[in-house]
């Protein structure tokens, strides 16, 4: 199903995990994709894989917390493929687990700069182009930690809450201009980073999910691409839980 034929998309944090799956799914459905990541090996690998599979992709090394990098990212989409129609703002960072008074300010800043400031800067640049052309769709990747508390992860949780706040506010501000903005809130997803942790820890995380397993990057990508598509043309300002029932099972 080539639902994105003729569309150009940006995906941040696309060098692995959820971002990689989103980029691959968009490309398989016809979009030209700009792969944004701070990792050159990861970003080039994903872009090359899409190209070898017959899709269109370029890599643009991007630190989303840097305004000039983000401006260059949008320019790369326009220069490489002639426009920009879709964006997945997925890049984010956590910090070492600790209670709030034990979190180093530098660790908090790093998490917030990438996860929250990075999402803001990307949306700002993307929306500037979308307003000029009267169309566009954005999906921001938050987390279940952006909907409820996340023990010993105050900076990460606050940043992910902020991503949802940006999504909801911007969705209303731009709804009358043909621009839709939504977010997704995954529980633990079996990304390469998560799978690098000890199996006992992975099992503990999976046990918190009523379905008894972690999600997959492809499952997140399928929801993200639906929200970007014309099939979701009346959906904006929404946050979708992708959690195997976890949020419903938690105490109120």
Question: What does this 3D model show about the protein?
Answer:
With 252 residues, the chain is an alpha/beta fold. The chain has a single domain (8-241), classed as Rossmann fold, CATH 3.40.50. The chain has nine helices and seven strands; from the N terminus they run E-H-E-H-E-H-E-H-E-H-E-H-H-H-E-H. The chain has helices spanning 17-28, 40-52, 67-81, 105-133, 154-174, 192-195, 199-207, 217-228, 246-249, and strands at 8-12, 32-37, 56-61, 86-89, 136-141, 179-186, 239-242. It has a seven-stranded parallel sheet, with helices on both faces. Helix 1 packs across helix 8 and helix 3 runs parallel beside helix 4 (105-133). The termini are far apart. The model has no long low-confidence stretch (mean pLDDT 97). InterPro entries: NAD(P)-bd_dom_sf (IPR036291), Sc_DH/Rdtase_CS (IPR020904), SDR_fam (IPR002347). It comes from Rhodococcus chondri.
Please give the order of strands in the largest beta sheet. 3-2-1-4-5-6-7
* Second rung of CATH, namely the architecture: 3-Layer(aba) Sandwich
What characterizes the major β-sheet? 7 strands, parallel
Terminal residue distance:
40 Å
CATH class: Alpha Beta
> Residue-averaged pLDDT, rounded?
97
Number of helices: 9
Number of strands: 7
Pick out the low-confidence regions.
none
């Amino acid at each position: 199903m080539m639902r994105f034929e003729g569309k150009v998309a940006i995906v941040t944090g696309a060098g692995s995990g959820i971002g990689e799956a989103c980029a691959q799914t968009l490309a398989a459905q016809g979009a030209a994709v700009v792969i944004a990541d701070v990792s050159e090996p990861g970003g080039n690998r994903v872009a090359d894989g899409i190209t070898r599979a017959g899709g269109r992709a370029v890599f643009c090394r991007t630190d989303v917390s840097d305004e000039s990098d983000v401006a260059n990212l949008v320019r790369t989409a326009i220069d490489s493929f002639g426009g920009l129609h879709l964006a997945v703002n997925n890049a984010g960072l956590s910090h070492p687990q600790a209670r709030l008074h034990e979190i180093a300010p530098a660790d908090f800043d790093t998490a917030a700069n990438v996860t929250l400031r990075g999402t803001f800067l990307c949306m700002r640049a993307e929306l500037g182009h979308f307003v000029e052309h009267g169309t566009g769709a954005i999906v921001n990747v938050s987390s279940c930690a952006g909907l409820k508390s996340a023990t010993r992860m105050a900076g990460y949780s606050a940043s992910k809450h902020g991503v949802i706040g940006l999504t909801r506010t911007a969705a209303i501000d731009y709804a009358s201009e043909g621009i839709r903005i939504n977010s997704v809130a995954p529980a633990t997803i079996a990304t390469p980073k998560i799978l690098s942790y000890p199996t006992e820890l992975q099992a503990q995380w999976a046990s918190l999910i009523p379905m008894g397993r972690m999600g997959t990057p492809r499952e997140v990508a399928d929801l993200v691409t639906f929200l970007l598509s014309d099939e979701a043309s009346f959906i904006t300002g929404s946050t979708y839980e992708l959690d195997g029932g976890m949020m419903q099972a938690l105490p109120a």
